[in-house]
Records
---
Amino acid sequence: MKFVDEYRDAARAEECAQAIARGVTRPWTLMEICGGQTHAIVRFGIDELLPPTITLVHGPGCPVCVTPLELIDKAIAIASRPEVTFCSFGDMLRVPGSRQDLLTVKAKGGDVRIVYSPLDAVKLARARPDRQVVFFAVGFETTAPANAHAVFQAHAEGLRNFSLLVSHVLVPPAMEAILGSPSNRVQGFLTAGHVCMVMGFADYEPLAARYRVPMVVTGFEPLDLLRGIHLCLNQLETGRADVENAYGRTVRREGNPGARALLQKVFRVVDRKWRGVGMIPQSGWALREEFAAYDAEQRFGVADYVAEESSECLSGLVLQGVKKPPECPAFGTRCTPDHPLGATMVSNEGACAAYYRYRRRGA
């Protein structure tokens, strides 16, 4: 299949791995910052192609995984109301809250629906003026433009029965939090190509300069990842710390100007809590004042919810690159996709789910 197979060519991957091995003179630790990249690395064995001196660790790149526990509880509380039709992407339905998940609410009779776009929720609100339609707006910069457009469209049409439960997070502040942590072990980053497709990569340049850490914009196929790793290691070996674009077929430095303009019009930057990580300053988006009427937290009075994380789940350490999933005592025993302790085992982009599917003993 053209444009897929050409980036999964085994011979070219082996050549790239050999070139990496020839150029490495000391141990290095790199982090990818995208759940899709994490799954590709584990699925295709990218890390196993590399010299043993190269360590790949997995960052907070799964949007479902970093959605804080109290946001899940807020979603459950809203979805449980009889007048509400709660819309979400499917991967959020099994993420555990404090006591249950959205799938349980649906099983108990709640009107919880899987949609494929926030505009599906807008369409539903338009068709059902007697219902309060709420869309769970989760994700990084990648999914934010569509959610911003949904609010903008609802506002233009005067739809008063539509709202968003917003849990958008931003990648660069999370990277800075990792780099500033006393437990940081990351010496270079592979940045998410789809995030940079929207936002560009200029915002990464001050981080690379300040912390002297190379960053390479990378795609999701095996050859994309190997090329990104190669470029990042070349920088480390030569003492450089720049932002390079290894995903030029999709990403430009300025990103998508139209999408960025819409995001700026609808959202404002706020402090945001990340599940398993904690509060990161200026790391999220919330609706601007002129769109506050579409804020589901305010509309349904759930803004003050708080919740405590499970002490048994080590997803926070996994998301920070401090531990890998098999190092958690509950991995594959107390914590499985059928009975997850944390979101990293539920999401299709979660690191724990990737290791469970592709690296579990006997799998």
Note: The chain has a mean pLDDT of 93.
---
Amino acid sequence: MDFLNKVKLYTGSYNSPILTGDGSIYHGRGEGIRVFLFDEEKGVLEALESYPDVENASWITFSPDKKTLYAVNELDDYEGTKGGALSSLAVDEEGKLVLRNRLPVMGAAPCHVSYGEGHVFTANYNGGSLSSFAVNEDGSLKGMDWHIVNKMEKEDRPEGIDRVRQEKPHVHSASVYEGVLWITDLGMDEISSYGLDGKGRTVPITCCRLELPAGSGPRSLAFGKEGYVYVSCELSNQIAILDAKGEEPELKGFVSCLPEGENGKGNFPGGILLSKDRRHLYVGNRGHNSIGVFRIDQFGMPEGIQWAPSGGKNPRGFQLSPSGRWLIAANQDSDNLVVFRRDKETGMLTEHGRYDAGAVVCLAFLIG
């Protein structure tokens, strides 16, 4: 066995009841966090330990030094706070996890977490809010130091919105990129960005807001070359292309997440990911049950070239392996992980293997 070709893969899943966007209660068959060993040569996964006490770990990320894993606990009432929680877990030399501490985020259903400028940021979907946590030197959470709660005037809502999904603010992602915090709000059709001062605090004068067309439902972000930002729009079945080179982001256009001629009703695209060289973009089509593969042209615009069947239902999350030779997709509703071989030149995918994994929704490789 050649351990030089093996890397740890951490997955998050639902294992406690949670209120979904359409108002129903979802009961996942997950294990909280599960660790796998992935063979980069053979494209094979081996299941290792699990951590069920990290409830509803719907998004995970590592600190830059890889010594801490942060996981949101997508709950609606953690310890009576009417919100979810954020967990800090130490990563030992063997890649095993030990809980450092866990704090409430003061917003319901946190669904995304990112690290930047010495802080950890959570997007709280049902709370319509963002929470910022300072961290200690050992990676544990020091405490929440600021909190943004989006507000909506219902009487001013335009025609064309989804009256069920956009009844209030729904902050879906909070991503730090090159010193800027980007926030998407699916409920308000809004993307906002905040400059950070190097200590994780916002610089208010650099705050920008961009409104997308009514009913877009911005969800996830990917950052491309030369200031381009790509946004999966869950409700309109589109990818929004932003040019963020200037002082304020500018909407350049949209492309469909599905092949030409398919209207996308019931598709609800979710995750979005760029290859390391920024030449190919991947989108999870959760209703179509496919991974859309897009080539990025010289003008930064995506062109669809493949819609690979995801090998299951509801491909919620996916990641490229460190070598870029593989893509692993998490199919939440069919309780499986699917490994795809990836052509690094064309970006196209070929299914390679399937593995059982209950209600798995997010993935992160531990890269030393």
Note: The chain has no helices and 30 strands.
---
Amino acid sequence: MFKAVVIDKQEQGQSVSLTEVDESQLPEGDVTVAVEYSTINYKDGLAITGKSPVVRKFPMVGGIDFAGTVEASSHPDWKAGDRVVLNGWGVGETHWGGLSQKARVKGDWLVPLPAAFSAKQAMCIGTAGYTAMLCVLALEKHGLKPEDGEILVTGAGGGVGGVAISVLSKLGYSVVASSGRTEEADYLKALGASSIIPRDELSKAGKPLAKERWAGAVDSVGSYTLANVCAGIQMHGAVAACGLAQGMDFPSTVAPFILRGITLYGIDSVMAPRAQRVEAWERLGRDFAIGEREGMFQEIGLGDVIGVGEDIIAGKVRGRVVVDVNR
């Protein structure tokens, strides 16, 4: 038996509980992992609260990522004792996820845990940080360099935003942070932001084409915010979009794309190819100084997950929340 956060369907809505589960109930897969740490991401908050139909199969063990040690494997790439990390692939949505003391998954979904990180540190970064690194890689491959101008990061107080600011600043970029929490200015500057702009400056309907302000951007917010970000990108700049905290809509025009030649990169962290995943984690090991970022993280036990899931949707959580599944 092991403990897991189980989401189940009810006649009206859903239930969420910390439950004892028999190992025989684990889903199909060729690798069984003893999970050590998981996280609470924004998507996990949506799943736990039922605010969005993230969970598509019931009952479901929540958690879109985890890090731990292989217990048993029939997959050629993995053996007992290997240290692994998993992000996405539908875990916590269509396949039992990481808010659990055990997981059984397809070996193709796993990547090696970088030597630079412990399991706890990897989940301090989690899917949010891995997604932030995918965004940075997209901007780099577009050709953006620090001397090209400022990089805007929206949703700066969240997990994606915090890691993006930290990595970009370490790489030499001047970073502008957009946040609705003005009281977090010192925290964001400590991460590496050179200046802060209020969320309201971007979150309402704006002009189809605005003053050229930023060379590039990392956006985890969507909706009017993403539209205004695109409107303010410099000629031939780029935006990496990875979230929908404000909404799934994109009330923009073609003006920034055909008059300034900007590029909008959609960042898919769930089904990203293995090579991209390995590159992102290797770069995090090199470019994210986790030992200097203790203020970004808080640790909770598995029994605290449900309450924190509600808090993250309410905008009450700063940075990253790592979950010790054995606590």
Note: The domain at 126-266 is CATH 3.40.50.720 (Rossmann fold).
---
Amino acid sequence: MPKTQVACPQCRQPNVVEVQQIFDLTQDPLAKQKLLNGAVNVIHCPTCGYSGMLGTPIVYHDPEKELFLTFFPPESGLPLNEQEKQLGPMINRVIDALPPEKRKAYILQPKSMFTYQTLIETILEADGITKEMLEDQQKKIHLIQRLLTAPETELNTIIEQEKDSFDLSFFALYSRLMQSALSQNDEESAKQLEKVQNLLFEKTEIGKQLYKSSQETQQAVKALQDAGKDGGLTREKLLDVVLGAESDTAVSTIVSLARNGLDYEFFQLLSQKIDGAKEKEKEKLTALREKLLNLTAEIDKRMQAEFNKTKELLEKIVGVENIEAETEKHLENITELFLQVVDDEIEKARKKGDLDRIQKLERVMIVIRKAMEPPQEVKLIEEMLALVDKQEELEKFMDAHPESATPEIVQLLNGIITQAGNTPDESLQKIQQLYKAVLHYSMKKNIAAG
């Protein structure tokens, strides 16, 4: 992406920002993800810590959904004819990149989005996420903020007032916020979220059900872990764990976690147990066997469907001429199962001596391995962290690698420190130490150059 220098809106210090104005899914399959995640056109000022969106013209193209959208930031104050002059070349670049046979009618009439929010909503709506769904989620977020900031004495009143708002989607959103706080080591927010969640578990009907289900799941997991401690989890031990399960939730959890153990031999043991049981117990065990068979069949069906879907994706990729471009297009769909399927297919091709298929599959793997490699900036930071306690060696490294002390590296280090907050951590201290060293080195070089 091109880079440009802009002044920080807060402290007016110059910042180098990566700017992307064209989001064309035919050229970049990850373009939509970058735009929706706010991963581009963002200022992170290392001087004052300001973070915010950069107002820039945008052209968005999704041929599959037949979306061709433009956005020009209203704060620019430019007249319409000037806006069209800037957007025109970008629109033409998108059209020129399309083969003539794919230039449908929609491409001739790009839709103008008056606000950035409208742009995002239009893209999401094409994916089946309506404005009403977004508004509902926003209401839930506001309710969560209200619960987190309200005095403790008012929480019960708010919960009673908003009792119709607490549904499964609310708790799913709440759970994601908790996971986000934990992943960012934001202990203060995590504690407050947990405190309010415990109250919601106690005071709301759906909360009570979720808490009970959660406890039953945890007990089932612990039972499996305990059973596997001495000598591993045998089928006999697994049968005992299943027989000790006290709810459907616990049984479902055990089956989902230990599906491989519920094989022919396991069901033989259960059948022997049924044969030796008394009439009342026999009925109970027979019903349990039927339930286990249904659960395992359901899991197998889902797994087979997922396998078929993954295999179809692989065949679609290796079936085109430009395998590399097709693989990149589907990188977000690459899973552990996909990698396993590729390995299996390579092994089958080797046994058959099918060199052409091996070569195609290896081309897929080369793209995936490259995508899994950490960015160059991260590699540089890792190398410098190893030298952070050796000042002379670190400076020699930066002398030999000028790209290691760029504004982008400084911003990346500052972003890591900002996200980590005040968490006491040895690795964070090293990053802070490296940040100061790189900043000092960069300033020294700038003074020398001036």
Note: The CA atoms of residues 29 and 329 lie 5 Å apart.
